Amino acid sequence: MIISKTPYRISFFGGGTDYPSWYRKHGGQVLSTTIDKYIYITCRYLPPFFEHRLRLVYSMTELCNKASELDHPSAREVLKFLKINDGLEIHYDGDLPGRSGTGSSSAFTVGLLHALYAYKGQTITTKELTETSINIEQNIIKETVGSQDQTNAAYGGFNHIKFQKNGEIEVNPVNISSELMSDLQNNLLLFYTGIQRTAEKIARSYVENIEDKSKTLNTMSSMVDQALDRLMNNDLDGFGKLLDQTWKKKRSLSTLVSNSIIDSMYQEAMDNGALGGKLSGAGGGGLLLLYVPLEKQKRVKKKLSKLLHIPFNFETHGSQIIHSSEDIHTLE
Question: What is the pTM of this model?
Answer without folding.
Answer: 0.92
